[in-house]
Every structure is written in C-alpha cells, then in structure tokens.
Design brief:
Helices cover about 55% and strands about 10% of the residues. By secondary structure, the protein is α+β, with helices and mostly antiparallel strands. A hairpin with a 2-residue loop joins strand 1 and strand 2. Keywords: DNA-binding, Membrane, Repeat, TPR repeat, Transmembrane, Transmembrane helix.
Length: about 500
C-alpha cells in the first residue's frame, strides 16, 4: 500500500501513522495534531479560515475556536516555531492561519518505509522525549478530596498546584484499589441521612475536578448540616464542612481563607480529639497551617502525621512535595517525586516536577517535561501557566505570548480584545502587554496568579519596580498564599537585592 509522505523544511510527515520525522528524532503525534498538520500540508501557502480548519479537523463535532488555538499552539511547540517570527504557522488576525513552508508530497510503499526504519535501527513509532521523563502509563484512578497540587497552581498542580494555583491546587488522586477514607467509614443507621452524606461527598468531588461554582460546596455544607442535626458527633460530616469551606476559598485563590481559619481549625480539632489518626483531618490541618496561618513548622508536623496515618495516599505526597518546593528544598522534592513515579507510573501525569525544574532554573528540562504532558495528557490550564512563566523568565517573548493568548481565549476574551493585546505585543513585546494588564488592573489568572500578586508580577516585567513592591507589601499584609514563594521564585530576581524586597522577605516564614 502506498504511504503519502509530506516533506517540508527538513521534516517528513507520515499522516497515515501520525509520525513526524526530522534528522534528529521521530515524534508520534496525537490524532488532532496530526489531522491539523495533514490539512496544512494539503494546503500550503494558503490562507485558511478558522471555520475551515474546525470543519476539517473536528468534522461532526461541536467545538469552539479555543480547541483550534490550543492545537495550533501544540503544533508550533512540536515544530519549535515562534509566533512572533513564524517559520511554519503564521497567524492572520481575525481570519485564521497560513502554512508557510513549501511542501512536497511523495509516496512510498509500507515495505519501503519499514525497511528504512529497520536500516536506521528505529521502530516506526519511536517517540521523541526527554530521557529523564518517561512516557506516562495510563492507570485507572479514582479521585478523592482536596490537596495541594501548582497553579503553581491552583498552584501551581498545585504550585498549580495555585489554582490559581498552579502552585496550589485542590485535586488529589487515590491509589488503585484504595477506598476513600471518608466514604468507607461513613455508616449512618438512617438510610436517608446516609444518602444525604453521600450526595454531599459527591458534590465536593465533582466541584474539585470541574470548573463549577461555589454552589456545589454550599449545597454540600447544607447536606452535612442536615446530618449533624440528627447525629451531632458524626465526625466525618464535620470534616466535610471544613473541607468544603477550604475548597470554596481555593476557588478565590485563597484570598479569603483568613475568614475561615478559626472555624476550620475548631472543626478539625474536634475531629482529631475523637479520632487522632484521621488522615483527612491531619492533612487539612497541614494545609491550613501552611496556607492560612503561614506556620510552616506546624504544617510540616501535620504533613508527617498525615503521611503516617495514610502512607498509601499519593495525594499527600504531592502536597508535601509542593510544601518542600516553597521552602526551597528542591532536591528533597525532586527525589520524592522520582520515588513516587517509580512506585506508581501514574505520577508521570502530574506537573510537579516541571515546577521543581523551573524553580531550580533548569528551564529546558521544565519545558521538556511540560511539553511531554501537553503532547500526551488531557489539556490543562496549568500547562499554559508554566510555559507563560518560563517564557518570561527566559526572555522568550514569543513563548510567553503564545500561551498567554491561549489563556485569554480560555477566559473568554473577545477576538477584538485579543487582537488589541497582540498589537501591543508586536509593538513592545511581553513587557508592553504586561504593562497594559497592570494599567487596566486585570484580575484574571493569566498565568501569573491573581491580584495583588499578579499585579506585582506584571509590574516586575514592565520594569515598574516601585509598583511591584507596593503590591507585594499588600499581598503579604493580606496573607495571600502565593506570597510564600517570594523566597524561591526566580520571577522576583530583579528585586531580590534591593533593601525594600529584603524587608518584605523578612516578614515571611522560611
């Protein structure tokens, strides 16, 4: 059977097998990316509208332009293309895209391609990857309650794990075969109340893993309180309320966590008085001490107790790795994550190691690790968060803007508004864009967290250092959790030696 091969700029693309070859490597493309590249190759040096590409690549499916923007960004990264100085894909504002390289097509038989692969010593499906970042293994997983992931967020994930995190996020996995501690222990004698408790647990789980409003948490709290009216000493319902209120604060980037600290602590102290080894309560105490009270010593103690109580819970280790990262204990965090990946390959799908590399200043590994996730895992805002940040840190304005544009689309910005930002970028680079975001006091999480931290970070890039210091002081006064990373985040290096910044650092735990 003849195999169609496209040739362009030193690349060979085999659409039948979704393989992109260069002299250096061979990459297996995901289906949508291969379909997009196939259509570009069929229509070289032509203006292709977004509608045309959506119909060609997502035929029969109802999707919006965000899906196309994400796919184009992924393809650009695979081709090492730059949005600012494109060699492959040129954006036509308000229209669509233009495939730049001259593209030829040749045909060979399957046997010929196989012989070429064998003579080269490669298998037909070799995937290019960082040798330190093996491909992930898809493992069936159940999901359980909150935990820090980056955000960085929302860390960070979660430095993510700031969900607004990327440094601080709120999703946590359960190991294969491990039951949810709360659900397994919940055995109410009243079937109707048991149903309410189960519904409340489900509402929290859904809210943690989808972009839902706080109404899920409010309804869960209402159901937990119905249970407690009949069984006031039912510890798990108390813990459920504490968890729901913590997660409600996470939606707002923990900016209002101080409102709940006393209440959540009272609930958890009551729960631990009845069950000192309750791992859920211990972990929530750790996170509250960490993010709400900035008591890192107490947080470390509770993390250790939670790990002792639930040694097989992977989510605790993810949260603890982020805690180590914030404290500048990079090697410990790195080793912990590597051990977890050896123990359970499912950990390859979390981006905590990308954050470790970024904070260590090993940007190429951070990019490679994040790109591996983008190529093989479900799309995540955190992927674009970290690549936007790395673009800023490495003065790669095109990378920063590419992923900032994706984040803007995900926020629902109009085409005209995005076009205005792109014009600003063309005139003055990412510095000018961030100056504009600062001037308009943009409150969205566009990869640099949320105000006032985000405004400080925009101001640093824009060179407005006095403004940055003012917003950092405000963030510390508000106990915005993202301020805890000032000690270790390289984004703040332009301010690091100034007396004013050193005074701010002195106000933070370390």
């Amino acid at each position: 059977m003849a195999v169609r091969i496209y040739c362009f700029s030193g690349y060979e693309f085999d659409p039948l097998h979704a393989l992109l070859r260069s002299p250096a490597d061979e990459i297996s493309l995901e289906h949508r990316i291969a379909s997009l590249l196939d259509y570009f190759c069929q229509h070289p040096q032509q203006a292709l509208t977004k509608e045309t590409l959506l119909n060609a690549v997502w035929a029969g499916r109802v999707v919006n332009e965000d899906s196309l923007s994400v796919a184009v960004s992924k393809l650009r990264k695979i081709l090492h293309d730059s949005r600012g100085e494109p060699q492959f894909i040129k954006t036509i504002p308000g229209v669509g895209y233009f495939w730049l390289p001259e593209t030829t097509v040749q045909e060979s038989t399957a046997a010929e391609r196989s012989a070429e692969n064998i003579s080269a010593g490669d298998s037909p499906a070799t995937v290019a990857k960082d040798p330190l970042a093996p491909s992930p293994v898809n493992t069936k997983r159940d999901w359980r309650r909150s935990g820090l992931i980056m955000a960085l967020v929302f860390v960070l994930l979660t430095f993510v794990v700031l969900l607004n995190l990327d440094l601080f996020s709120s999703s946590k996995p359960v190991a294969e075969g491990q039951s949810d501690t709360v659900s397994a222990a919940a055995m109410l004698p009243d079937a109707a109340l048991q149903a309410k408790f189960d519904e409340a647990q489900k509402l929290i789980s859904v809210a943690q893993h989808t972009e839902t409003s706080v109404e899920n948490y409010r309804r869960a709290i209402e159901l937990f309180r119905d249970v407690l009216q009949q069984y006031p000493s039912f510890t798990l319902a108390h813990i459920g309320i504490a968890e729901a209120k913590f997660e409600m604060s996470a939606i707002n980037g923990f900016r209002d966590l101080q409102l709940y600290v006393d209440e959540i602590n009272t609930i958890l102290n009551l729960a631990l008085a009845q069950a000192p080894d309750n791992g859920d309560a211990l972990e929530l105490k750790a996170k509250l001490a960490f993010l709400g009270e900035w008591d890192l010593s107490t947080a470390n103690t509770y993390y250790e107790k939670a790990i002792e109580a639930m040694p097989n819970d992977p989510g605790i280790y993810l949260g603890y790795s982020e805690f180590l990262l914030i404290r500048g204990r990079y090697q410990e965090a790195n080793e912990l994550l590597r051990q977890l990946r050896v123990k359970n390959p499912d950990f390859y799908r979390y981006m905590n190691l990308s954050l470790v590399y970024m904070f260590q200043g090993d940007y190429q590994r951070a990019i490679a690790e994040t790109q591996r996730l983008i190529n093989s895992e479900a799309p995540s805002r955190q992927h674009n968060h970290i690549l936007t940040r790395i673009g800023v840190l490495t003065n790669d304005d095109a990378m920063a803007m590419d992923h900032l544009e994706i984040l803007m689309r995900e926020e629902g910005y109009s085409e005209q508004r995005i076009a205005n930002y792109l014009d600003t970028f063309d005139q003055g680079g990412i510095e000018a864009v961030y100056a504009s975001l600062l001037e308009e006091r943009n409150e969205d999480n566009l990869g640099q967290y949320i105000p006032p931290i985000s405004w400080a970070r925009y101001a640093i890039v824009a060179g407005e250092y006095d403004t940055a210091l003012r917003f950092l002081e405000e963030a510390i006064s508000l106990k915005q959790p993202q301020a805890l990373i000032l000690h270790s985040d390289p984004h703040y290096d332009p301010l690091r030696q100034t007396p004013e910044f050193q005074q701010l650092l002195a106000r933070l735990p370390n």
